[in-house]
Structures are given as structure tokens and as C-alpha cells.
Write a structure and sequence with these properties.
With 530 residues, the protein is an alpha+beta fold. The chain contains 20 helices and ten strands. A four-stranded antiparallel β-sheet has the order 3-8-6-7, with no helix packed on it. Strand 1 and strand 2 form a beta hairpin. The two termini are 28 Å apart.
Length: 530
């Protein structure tokens, strides 16, 4: 019953320095109230080595999912293929290719693929992992300032270490050389200039989220930078700088995949673009186990590999996609933050994928039943502090528009409320006397309990939603900005693409908020008429 409440506890942790177990954790943390960090972005030199701004490869789906004729293969792609072959990765099922409008991606091999085929299997020896970075010279140098469970930071530093070695001394150079540059990650808000981001995302929660993420990363970089002078041979300043650290984090954020209990960067597999509902499945394979494993402990001490299995057939040269999560639970703002694009090609799709994180205050500190209500939530398995309020990624669906209601009804529940239904009134009296059945009461709170409570909940929800709506640009201003590239002058620029992404996210935010307002205006009217 408290599944949504448990999920939302991830939003309320607020450390002063990022300790993300995954890129998504870093994003979630930015939605919580955060300590203001004293270090400003302008305090760092953002002069970047050429790799951070040079062309490399595109990544994400922006058009249809149809295949396209391969473009001329760049030298980097030939080197990458040769490196895979030398490393024992000789899959006939899929291969890397450069497609117009897509960049370097994963396509079916010359014989096509059939459902159930193993498309690739990449052993952990080729992965870039947090544990390998932590065990090396970079990990040893930063051990006092970067926690061992901060997988994102360790992977980012590992990327910079590989880059600093150069072609002659980096065994995985063909993979590093194929990674997207900062200029190519056009849609990654983490890399947008502060002024442009503030303008494009004005009114969106994402502006503050990204600003604080950058600030936290630069705060962490300051701690790392402090150890550089004593380890100059490990940290060449041409690569290890603030711009490089942000670039590396953007790469990790958009490309790293969970593997066991860690995040890994997995060559070849991370070329797969996104398509909602793609049937192809990623899993962990263990040598001798006869297939995929489901638990992290099954990998320990064994030769493991990242495996991609075909969920459907594909013709030769057809692009092989995976689903990044958008089809299930990721809102458009989260897709933009994490991967640098907004799925869909129409206003209807951007609206349907919309979401807006909101915080709803819970039980008042002055509530006479605060101890009982806290105990009730604890008995149901909620985390400490659940009674204080709830973060909800509001979506434009009927169930999401009322997902905050049970907690808010509890917050406004009083045994002296004459408008309560008889059964609920008895449960409220039992709560006051410390003898309420937690499951029975929470079940009762899933539906309206009385006119007075519903009126209070409606006013609270409407106040939060209307405040958020008032900050956003109107829909008729956002819709023209969100349109796909029309081939007009200026449409094909990086600035235009960022503006499109921002507008699509905010259209989705408006959709979620307006849907919620519509629902609760009806509730308020019904409560007033009761």
C-alpha cells in the first residue's frame, strides 16, 4: 500500500556532496531540498582538452525506428571493430555502424537475427568498472575524498584516466575515441551553459535540479583537485579539470548500465539506441551457468558477461534498440536529464510522457495525533520521515493524479470530524487511542473519507499544482518551440535542439499539472456541494 511512499523516500536524502550509487540517484537527489554550496561554477577554469569539444558520435533516437543506409564508416569505427575482434568479441549477429541521423549505433549483422539469438556477450574484462578504478592509482589517490560507493564519480575519473593515457598507452583507446564529445551531447542539460539553461528551462523544476547537480559535481571536483598537486603523474591537468569532470559524468549518466551491484561502462552494448517497448533484453551471463543470472551474488568469483538477447527478429542492417525505461516509468524530464533527448515526435507523445516532481507536506508538527500517525506509517513499512511529506513524480494519468491523496487524508484525519464516514470515524478514534489496525486504516484512506477532509486535500493539491503551473510558460508558447526540425534557417543548430528539448519537457510538465488540477477541482466542487 505504501509502495509509492517508499519510492519517494529516495527524493528526501540531502547530503552536501554527491555520493550517487547510480546516475539516477544523483538526479533524484537534486529534487530534494539541498544545502547551498558555497563554490560557484565560475570559480573553475572550464578550458577543455580537444576531446571534450571535438566530434565523435551521436547516440540517441530522434527519428523513426526504420533502418537507414550506412554512412561511410569513419576511421574510429574501423579501429573499434578491430579492437573488438582482437578482444575476442566476434559477434556475427550485430555490429557497430554509422547511420545518417543516428551516428554510431548497433545494427543487425549481414545475416539478420532471429528471436532468441544472443546478439552480443561482452565479458567484464572489457568493462570499465568502479572497482577497477578504485583499485588503481587514480582510486588510491582520491580514496579520501571520493567514497568507494560513489560509482558515478569513480567511473568518471576512470574515463579521464583512460583518456589521459592517449592512443599509445590506452588498451581501450578505440572505445574511448568513439565516445561522444561534449559538443555532440547537445541535449544533456548537465553540459548546457548556465545562462542558456536558466533561459530555456525557466519555470521548470529541471532548471534547479541541473544547477544543483553541476554545483555538487564542482564541489566534489574541488575536493579531487586538492589532491592533484601531490599526484601530478596520475592527474595530467590537460585532461583532469572541471570541464573534463562534467563531460565524464555526462558520459556515465547517459551510458553506464547496472551490472550486479555496480554501474559499468560496457563497450558495444552502450551503442544501442532507445526505442520504447523494444523487446531485446539485457542480462548478465555467467560462464557454465547455462544462461542469465538474476542475483548479484551469482556473479561473484565467476567469469561474467553482459548479454543482449533478441526479443524479435531483425533484418540485416536494421538498427537494434533497447528500451531505456521510458515505456515503463520514466517521465520526459528524466529522459532528458539522463540521456539528453525527449522521446516522441508529436505534441501528443510529449504530453503523454510528461511528469512533474512535486512535494506535498504531510502531517503537521502541531497535529495532536502526530505520534500515532508516524507509528502507523512505520508499522506499514514506510521510512523514517514519511509522515513529513511525499515527493511524487506527477504524471497525466488518473491514478497518478490521486496518488498523494492517502497520505494527505491521513494528515487531515481527526476523530472529531463530523463529516467522516462512520467506519472511518471509528478507525480515527482507534488511532487516537493507539489501537488502530494500520492496514485497515490505510486501506480506508485509499478512497474519499469525508467532505471536510476531501476539501482540505483538494485545496492543498490545487495550491501546489497551481503554483507550479504559474511559473511555466503557456502551452501556446511552448508548442511552436517544441516542433521538430522543419529545415528552416536556424532549425538545425545545437541551440535550436536544446530549445526543442526544453519545450517538450515543459509541455509534459504542464500536461501533468493541468490533469491533476482538473481532477481536484472536481473533488473540491463535490466536497463543497456535500
Amino acid at each position: 500500500l505504501l509502495d509509492a511512499l517508499r519510492r519517494c523516500q529516495r527524493f528526501t536524502h540531502s547530503p552536501t556532496r554527491p555520493r550517487a550509487r547510480s546516475p539516477f540517484d544523483l538526479m533524484l537527489r537534486c529534487l530534494a531540498p539541498l544545502y547551498l554550496l558555497s563554490t560557484a561554477a565560475g570559480a573553475y577554469s572550464l578550458d577543455a582538452p580537444r576531446h571534450f569539444v571535438a566530434a565523435a558520435s551521436a547516440r540517441h533516437a530522434r527519428g523513426t525506428v526504420a533502418s537507414a543506409a550506412p554512412a561511410a564508416a569513419p576511421p574510429e569505427l574501423a579501429s573499434f571493430r578491430a579492437w573488438l575482434s582482437e578482444s575476442g568479441i566476434a559477434s556475427e549477429a550485430v555490429e557497430p555502424a554509422k547511420l545518417p541521423g543516428w551516428g554510431v549505433c548497433l545494427v543487425a549483422g549481414p545475416d539478420g537475427v532471429a528471436q532468441g539469438d544472443t546478439l552480443l556477450s561482452i565479458p567484464t574484462a572489457l568493462h570499465l568498472t568502479p572497482s577497477s578504478v578504485a583499485a588503481g592509482p587514480v582510486g588510491a589517490a582520491v580514496a579520501r575524498v571520493v567514497p568507494s560507493d560513489d560509482h558515478s564519480a569513480l567511473l568518471a575519473l576512470g574515463l579521464l584516466e583512460q583518456l589521459s593515457r592517449g592512443e599509445a598507452n590506452c588498451s581501450s583507446w578505440p572505445y574511448i575515441e568513439l565516445l561522444p564529445s561534449g559538443d555532440e551531447m547537445v541535449g544533456m542539460p548537465l553540459l548546457w551553459a548556465d545562462e542558456e539553461r536558466a533561459q530555456l528551462l525557466s519555470g521548470s523544476h529541471l532548471e534547479g535540479c541541473v544547477a544543483q547537480a553541476r554545483q555538487q559535481l564542482l564541489e566534489q571536483w574541488a575536493a579531487v583537485e586538492a589532491v592533484l598537486p601531490t599526484h601530478a603523474e596520475v592527474f595530467p591537468r590537460s585532461v583532469f579539470n572541471a570541464a573534463g569532470y562534467l563531460w565524464a559524468h555526462a558520459v556515465v549518466l547517459s551510458r553506464a548500465l547496472p551490472f550486479g551491484e555496480e554501474l559499468h561502462l560496457i563497450p558495444l552494448l552502450d551503442l544501442a539506441n532507445h526505442a520504447a517497448g523494444s523487446p531485446h533484453a539485457c542480462s548478465i551471463g555467467v560462464s557454465g551457468e547455462g544462461g542469465a543470472v538474476s542475483e548479484a551474488w551469482q556473479v561473484e568469483g565467476k567469469e561474467a558477461a553482459a548479454v543482449l538477447t533478441a526479443g524479435a527478429g531483425a533484418a540485416a542492417g536494421e538498427q537494434v534498440f533497447i528500451d531505456y525505461g521510458e515505456a515503463g516509468w520514466r517521465s520526459s524530464w528524466e529522459m532528458l536529464y539522463t540521456y539528453g533527448f525527449v522521446p516522441g515526435s508529436s505534441v501528443e507523445e510529449w504530453i503523454a510522457a510528461g511528469g512533474r516532481p512535486l512535494f506535498f507536506d504531510g502531517v503537521s508538527p502541531s497535529d495532536e495525533l502526530l505520534p500515532q500517525k508516524r507509528a502507523l506509517l512505520a508499522a506499514l513499512g514506510a521510512s523514517e520521515g514519511a509522515a513529513d511529506g511525499q515527493w511524487l513524480d506527477l504524471k497525466p494519468t488518473a491514478d497518478q493524479c490521486v496518488a498523494m491523496a492517502p497520505l494527505l487524508r491521513l494528515a487531515n484525519l481527526s476523530p472529531g470530524d463530523a463529516s467522516l464516514e462512520e467506519g472511518v470515524r471509528r478507525l480515527a478514534e482507534a488511532l487516537a487511542e493507539w489501537r488502530a489496525d494500520p492496514t485497515a486504516l490505510w486501506s480506508a484512506l485509499q478512497r474519499p473519507v469525508g467532505a471536510a477532509v476531501e476539501a482540505k486535500v483538494a485545496e492543498q493539491v490545487l495550491s501546489v499544482c497551481e503554483e507550479a503551473l504559474a511559473a511555466l510558460p503557456p502551452a501556446d508558447e511552448l508548442a511552436p518551440r517544441a516542433k521538430p526540425d522543419q529545415g528552416l534557417p536556424g532549425d538545425g543548430t545545437a541551440e535550436a535542439e536544446r530549445a526543442r528539448c526544453a519545450a517538450r519537457v515543459m509541455l509534459g510538465e504542464r500536461s501533468a499539472l493541468e490533469a491533476c488540477v482538473s481532477v481536484w477541482e472536481k473533488v473540491r466542487a463535490a466536497a463543497a456541494a456535500a
